[in-house]
Amino acid sequence: MKPYRIAIAGLGTVGAGVIENLQSNAELIEARTGRAIEIVAICDRDQDSNRGVDLACYDWADDAGWLADIDGLDAIVELIGGSEGIAYDLAKAALGKGVSIVTANKALLAHHGFELAALAEKNGARVGYEAAVAGGIPIIKALREGLAGNEVGSIYGILNGTCNYILTAMRETGADFADILKEAQEKGYAEADPSFDVDGVDTAHKLCLLTSLAFGVQPDFKAIETKGIREITGADIKAAQEFGYRIKLLGVAKRQGGAIFQSVEPCLVPADSSLGGVEDSYNAVFAEGDFVEKVLMTGRGAGRKPTASAVVGDIIDLAKGLDTPMFGVTTDKLTKPVWADAGQIKSRYYIRAGGDAQITEEIGKAELEALTDKLDSPYIMRVEDL
Ligand code: HSE
């Protein structure tokens, strides 16, 4: 069988990892795919840096925009990033010509996933995005294929490694958010501009894709209420621990009657629960299906090798001809989501005000407001008793 021909756009940490994976495991990848994977072009603004892999054997394209025009190309691996600009233009150009894409770009797909999925369907192309959600954890494949016989009731995800690292380090050292963030930046875990991570935007991008896939609804990034971890103090971490909980930035999507409740916010989870034990920069997704019951997948959510593992898994699937719609069903079958009214949600809440912290019984939003109305600057987190 003729080789599967790909081009790679973006040779940062993940791009270099993809090439390393394809080179080091070429033999087993070819055996499992039934054909070779051939890199016919690579592209990056920086053609000089040493990335720890041999790039001498590949043709460089000076402009990512040219890649979609390569004759006989099967797929473009888009690792440029960003929801607009080059990545978006490249994805549209490729899919418009029937060339599949494999991407780690959650922002692009959270904003334009529906349009790109429709374009792919129209032109007989496919979109692989395993690397866009929870890095090396094969959660897209699990939800789309392994759990395809289930009606999913809920998904809880620890989807941002930087936040999980910060919250873990705050608990272990007793230090405040700002100090640990600085340390995380020095160690290279957090971005120089960490706002997408710590303000929950990155988690919301990923949750948006999981919600579509799990519940068969059109992606709707703007509908996600998002709160990050900047306001969490050392005192919150300590109080949560005394109550037997840990604080995690959770992306949650669950059925609520005929609607879907969806949120990204720091929550308390029992310290001895499966998600409570997911520490450092690890990610995890906990899902419940009507037949499978509870499933937990955990692993590295970022980094060169784990993310490359997800990208290469997608390339192999495409090369084998696996033809699953991007969100599990074709776009004409994706319904418009009905979001649950937050006022109807009942939960237990952690409330910190002044020097005191408490955990309430299960109450609704109105009771919560009545309880916190007269408190001075209360800080509130939902409790998820998983
Ligand atoms: N900044 C992200 C994280 C990288 O910390 O999880 C992977 O999306």
Summarize the structure.
By secondary structure, the protein is an alpha/beta fold. The chain contains twelve helices and 14 strands.
Order of helices and strands: EHHEEHEHEHEHHHHEHEEEEHEEHE
Q: What is the CATH architecture descriptor of the largest domain?
A: 2-Layer Sandwich
Average pLDDT reading: 95
* Relevant CATH superfamily of the largest domain: Dihydrodipicolinate Reductase, domain 2
Number of helices, where a helix is a run of at least 4 consecutive DSSP H or I residues = 12
Ends distance:
48 Å
Protein model, in words:
The chain is an alpha/beta fold and 386 residues long. It folds into 2 domains: 163 residues, Rossmann fold; 200 residues, Dihydrodipicolinate Reductase, domain 2 (2-Layer Sandwich). Helices cover 34% and strands 23% of the residues. It has 12 helices and 14 strands. Strands 6, 7, 8, 9, 10, 11, 12, 13 and 14 form a 9-stranded mixed sheet that branches. A 5-stranded parallel sheet has the order 2-1-3-4-5, with helices on both faces. A hairpin with a 2-residue loop joins strand 12 and strand 13. Helix 3 packs parallel to helix 4, helix 4 runs parallel beside helix 9 and helix 6 crosses helix 7. The longest helix has 18 residues. It is globular, with a radius of gyration of 22 Å. The protein starts with a strand and ends with a strand. L-homoserine binds next to helix 6.
